[in-house]
TrEMBL record:
Protein name: Immunoreactive mannoprotein MP88
Keywords: Membrane, Signal, Transmembrane, Transmembrane helix
Record has Transmembrane as a keyword: yes
Signal sequence annotation: 1-19
Organism the protein comes from: Tremella mesenterica
Annotated region described as Disordered, given as residue ranges: 297-337
Domain of life: Eukaryota
Listed transmembrane segments: 349-370
Amino acid sequence: MFTALAIGAAALMAGVANAQVTATGTMGVTNPPKATLGTPINQTSYARLLSLNSLNDFCLFAPAEKDSVIGNVEAEVVAWCIQARNNARVIPDGSITGAQLQKSPLYWQVSGWGDFTKINIAPLDEGGELDPHGATGDGNPVGGNVTCNATGSDVSYEEWMNYMSYQQFCLRICIAENATYSAAIECEHTLDEMGCNWVMPGAYLNNSFTECDADAAYPPGVYPLANGSTSTFAQRYTGTYTDGAGSVGMFTIGQTVTPQTAFSTPASSNCVTYSTIGNGIPLSSLGLSGTVPSASSLSGSSQSTGSASTTSSSKSGSASGSKASTSGASSSGSSTAGSAIPGFSGFNYGPIIAAVLSVIALFAGTGAVML
């Protein structure tokens, strides 16, 4: 079985990332003309330009008004950045309590934990999903843009997704595509009810800050099968219908079995661990009270061996980190390292079996829940 799976997976992995998928539209009306570091602090800004440049220089979308249920305001969320940039609001130091940046050939992804009531998400709000499409095609938020400096300079990209809850976040910007998977598929955002860990697999370690090179994961919901094909999962849908006699009935499309995890967690390498991330801006300058640890302790060191939060694996070795968990606690044990490009090194075949049973279910609507 393992041999057949390896052959089938290898057939799906086509070369290296070979194309950037850059945005062709214009900046939203609330945004500066380009990504800019060092803009004035403005905690009432309505700018909607995210940047992802490093573990200590990225932005997230969150509500403009305090205690908002993000699923209700997806079209109106604004940019919040660790550093003062893009005319956006500044994330107060101490808000993010754990973060991992994965730099793969197909996407850059940052994910982690924190107290996002500090950036206006309502307490216990299980979350919402932001993307460049939205219900109307104008984006969630409307006029939202993203940039990434993966190439060494700021580039605007077309496909991205950002899931936010009161305590967890994940952001993926798709910077390239290969012969098998387009950027839109690698940034498939409609599986939001499955949550960050499932859609954007990673370490998700709290109280840990790491920046790593990484293999690219298989696209969300894609499970390679032994025969060389793939099974693609979509969120299950139950609806109602009215027959010719006027009676209302219910129907369900899809199987009852859902894969509990992504196909695998990609291998990472060249990891650098930091003690914290932040901007060092006093909370009083952000209109807040209290104190937080100084961000001056942000200093990284390359790791050659260690635990899941600091391991640097070889390019062709096993994955560092543990299997993604949706419970909020970091998992223990080793993870697998399936990849959408060369560098594949292992299997998590339990989800494959579940995926065979799932096959394809119909997704309906844009959810706003993190499970």
